[in-house]
Write a structure and sequence with these properties.
Layout: H1 5-14, H2 28-36, H3 42-64, E1 69-73, H4 79-89, H5 94-99, H6 107-123, E2 127-134, E3 137-148, H7 164-182, H8 191-203, E4 214-223, H9 232-247, E5 251-255, H10 260-265, E6 269-277, E7 280-287
Parallel strand pairs: 4-5
Antiparallel strand pairs: 1-2, 2-3, 3-4, 5-7, 6-7
Helix pairs in contact: 2-6, 4-6, 6-7
């Protein structure tokens, strides 16, 4: 990290001036396009991308010294930093290993998936994205969605219209998503595996969790590896669980194997285990407030 003594020593040891992620607003993908691509093949660039970001996260963890943690709703200016976190924290996740087997060859495409997803969720009604920061650095995020399959309940008061700007933005993102899928523009993705996963999502309507007419659903949760096991995930979970407690509705989620321990510790119970493909199992979980 620029300005960090340990990182400068590492640069000096290798006699290379590594460009900082902060040199480019676009982050990992931008670095790959502007610096790595002319100098090394894509596979090596992908491996370097993953290693470099993990090392920077480690030194940022040392620098921040776990200063006061804050959580707040996502601001559009946070999206590049959160996308970098997603691309790192989800790199070895079972689901993205299955969906994006070419993510090391095409790290820019892999990261762009999260940029688009975050923009979409930011504008989607009844969806709330929260980021965790320490020392001004984004170190984690969570996505909460209010599900209303039955009658509109109390609480937030039904489907939430976020204005015409969000409506137009969602329409444009839908068009982008359509042509990206039709032309197979995401090089990191296996479209065959995506079709299998979409079929699984379709079957979710038969899942016992889907029978819950009113609930809060945790759509995503990720924390920078260097900051894991410091209670950040629990704090990001606390917001949605408090909403559910006040509205007297359950919380549902699909857990990866890595997240099972945290959710069980907080009182979530396994509702169903599902085999999607070799190496990919999902676990539906539910938490009901007392």
């Amino acid at each position: 990290k620029e300005g960090n003594m340990a990182w400068r020593q590492l640069d000096t040891f290798w006699n290379i001036r590594f460009p900082s992620l902060k040199d480019y607003e676009g982050g990992v993908g931008s670095l790959h396009d502007k610096w790595w691509h002319p100098h090394m093949d894509q596979k090596l660039a992908g491996l370097y991308s993953s290693w470099r970001w993990k090392m920077e996260g480690f030194y940022e963890a040392l620098d921040a010294k776990m200063t006061e943690l804050t959580t707040h709703p996502l601001d559009p200016s946070d999206i590049p930093a959160v996308a970098d976190i997603c691309a790192t924290a989800m790199h070895d996740d079972e689901l993205f290993t299955f969906l994006c087997p070419h993510r090391d060859l095409y790290p820019s495409s892999f990261r762009q998936h999260f940029v688009t997803s975050l923009k979409k969720r930011y504008h989607t009604p009844d969806t709330h994205v929260f980021v965790a920061k320490t020392g001004g650095t984004v170190v984690g995020y969570a996505v909460w969605s209010r599900e209303r399959r039955g009658e509109v309940g109390v609480g937030l008061g039904g489907w939430e219209f976020r204005g015409w700007n969000s409506y137009i933005e969602l329409s444009l993102l839908a068009i982008e998503e359509k042509y990206t899928s039709f032309l197979h523009l995401d090089s990191s993705l296996s479209y065959k595996n995506l079709a299998l996963y979409n079929a699984h999502l379709q079957k979710q309507h038969e899942d016992p969790v889907a029978d819950v007419p009113e609930c809060w659903s945790l759509e995503a949760l990720a924390v920078v590896p260097a900051f894991q096991r410091h209670g950040i995930g629990s704090q990001l979970l606390a917001w949605g669980m408090q909403q559910a407690r006040e509205e007297k509705v359950p919380v549902t989620l699909e857990a990866s194997q890595a997240g099972l321990g945290l959710y069980e510790k907080l009182g979530f119970e396994v509702v169903r285990e599902c085999h999607i493909a070799d190496g990919l199992e999902t676990v539906s979980m539910k938490w009901t407030p007392e």
